């Protein structure tokens, strides 16, 4: 969850999928199709960190080739994996969220509601056992040639952005395990 949100205009950011982390031991008992997860997108400040695409104020695109909003999943674009670069395109002027994979524009994924006008959208990543590199524009060059009409979020005019000084606390989750040994 990033600390700079876009309230109007156009902005973008990108991520490169670097590695699926190797799992060992009991983690290998997790079904193979759920061991790794990457979803990228945007959300409002009120969206829980673990709810990208499942919350009503979040819009995501996952490695399975699905877009998601408010818990609804639909086919979109293509699957992505290690080595791919996903570019997230925020267009507040036309109320649209779009994505590109390896420089190829995938089309509009979401039409944003009018009631969201003026409310900041923040970059959001949902990861499980995946390593990524993120570029908000501070990198000397993009991971993949960018779509020029969408400047990187770090290069947008300050008027388009809102920076959060105090990030709301992340919901803490307690996991308890019970092991029973019979001898």
Please describe what this structure looks like.
- This protein is an all-beta fold and 183 residues long.
- 0% of the residues lie in helices and 39% in strands.
- The protein is globular, with a radius of gyration of 17 Å.
- It starts with a strand and ends in a 20-residue tail after the last strand.
- The C terminus is likely disordered.
List the helices and strands and how they pair.
Blueprint: E1 4-6, E2 10-20, E3 37-43, E4 58-62, E5 66-69, E6 72-75, E7 85-91, E8 96-101, E9 104-111, E10 122-128, E11 130-135, E12 161-163
Antiparallel strand pairs: 1-12, 2-7, 2-11, 3-4, 3-10, 4-5, 5-6, 7-8, 8-9
In short, what is this structure?
The protein is an all-beta fold and 183 residues long. 0% of the residues lie in helices and 39% in strands.
Descriptive labels:
single chain; 183 residues; mainly beta; five-stranded antiparallel sheet; globular; disordered C terminus
> Major sheet: order of its strands?
9-8-7-2-11
User: Which overall shape is indicated by the principal axes computed on the Cα atoms?
Assistant: globular
Intertermini distance? 47 Å
- Helical content, roughly? under 10%
For the largest beta-sheet, the strand count, sense and barrel status come to: 5 strands, antiparallel
Radius of gyration: 17 Å
Please count the helical segments. Answer: 0
Structural class comes to: mainly beta
Total strands: the figure is 12
Mean pLDDT: 82
Q: What portion of the residues fall into strands of 2 or more residues?
A: 35-45%
Regions with little confidence, pLDDT below 50 for 5+ residues: 169-183
Q: How do the helices and strands follow one another from N- to C-terminus?
A: EEEEEEEEEEEE
